[in-house]
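Supplementary notes for students who missed Thursday's class. We covered one full example, reproduced here. Read the sequence, then the structure, then the short commentary at the end.
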Amino acid sequence: MPMRALLIVIVCSVALAAQQTASPQVTSQDLLDGQKDPSRWLTYSGDYSGHRHSPLTQITPENVHQLSAQWTFQTGTLGSFQTTPLVLDGVLYVTGYNNNAWAIDARSGRTIWRYRRQLPEDLRNCCGPVNRGFAMVGDRLFMATIDAHLIALDIKTGGLLWDAELADYKVGYSATVAPLVVKDKVIVGIAGAEFGTRGFIDAYDTQTGKRAWRFYTVAGPDDAGGKTWPTGDSYLRGGGSIWVTGTYDPQQNLIFFGTGNPGPDYYSQAREGDNLYTASLVAIDADTGQRRWHYQFTPHDVHDWDSTQVPVLGDLTINGQPRKVVMFANRNGFFYTIDRVTGKVIVAKPFVETTWAKEIGTDGRPVLLPGNLPDEDGSRTCPDLGGGTNFMSPSYDPTTRLFFVTARETCAVYYSWDQKFKPGEQYESGGTIRPRDQKNFGALRAIDPTTGRLKWEFRYTSVSSSGVLTTASGLVFAGDGDGNIMAFDSRIGKNLWHYQLGFPMRSTAGTTYMLDGRQYLLVPSGSMLTAFALPQRP
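Structure (token representation):
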């Protein structure tokens, strides 16, 4: 076994050992089927569309108040979960801080096996050694690592099958995204823009770990879009990180990813131009890695507004016409409904306070307002660098046709200054402070994607980083910034239940699955997983 990985296998009981005698197999068709089998949760968002919506109906608005904790799992490590657990045949597959990972009995919370990666001591990352989850296909799991590798593990034992280097971690590259498996390829993006790196999306063969293609999220001089960067080598440190999982349209064979902000973050003069394909939605051919189209949300972004949110696919009727769309609540404070065939904007409306742009014009470009360019004296702009929303996953309920998102009402004073680039050092050329009179708060908001109008909201007393989960019974699960998991009526936003977890949720609102005739709600928060269910019937 390579020295870079240490595997700890724990046999918990005869029952668990028997449970693992044959390796589970996940097919490409299983991934296409998504939530057709509600005992499973096989991808980051539950299916390729990014809906994060379950067909389960056992837990309802009428009985959700009876939910109680059935078991908890403690990692025994530092750091907070930002993962979405995958569920297959009664086993949970979970990633955590510092690339720890576990297979866990979904009935009891007992560990089946554990993987622990031996990470180098000279890591460089801006935002903590977090991880957002596994991908799976066949008899293997895939995880991106904080030292910028992609690894494949045996689903039965947690043993290392292959290890592919994405980029050199020593210059600031890292990887935290949950990979996306499409057919025979596992797709992953790279992070590290804060260190002056050039972002990309890669595809690797699921069996061999050999790279199939690479798409750079920062256009080079010979690429379409290359003229949106200054002449010279600024594109080589142009940012464009990927750290939230994309979605897939099998009919068009297109994958959709939101890309990170350009670098350096705040100093405009260092990179005049639109800076494609940063702060954008890119539609890429899943077989070749070739760009089909793109839409840039924030041309020449100077506020650190990554577009690394989940692109949510759907079929809507707008103005009497059926449209295949991608829905996107962006960090810049605007909600978008975009034609996913052409990349043209259909709807674009603010869903939080936005002071930097009056509107999105008919050409798809923001109509900028004056006084929002960062400089050494500072400029006050809403939203703050955390954005109107961020990495927390939204949800779309195709029954109510509502899009649910955790919104942030925040502002900041932005500063910028010239900074000399040094490899391996953070390269942001500015920063922010919170205005003294600013009263931040968060909210769960329900948006009609055909118009961009707000249908309802539930305000939190503080800013939240929780994702959202919906179910076919008419429930929305989300969390506030104070450590409560909460359930709401999806049609009117009434709070129906809450439970204090002891630590706020980050990125995800949980997973739901059916097991032995009971619907479970699995919630990661802090270093703990908690499984909830209704009382067992006699």
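Commentary. Confidence is low (pLDDT under 50) at residues 1-20. The chain is about 0% helix and 40% strand. If anything here is unclear, bring it to office hours.
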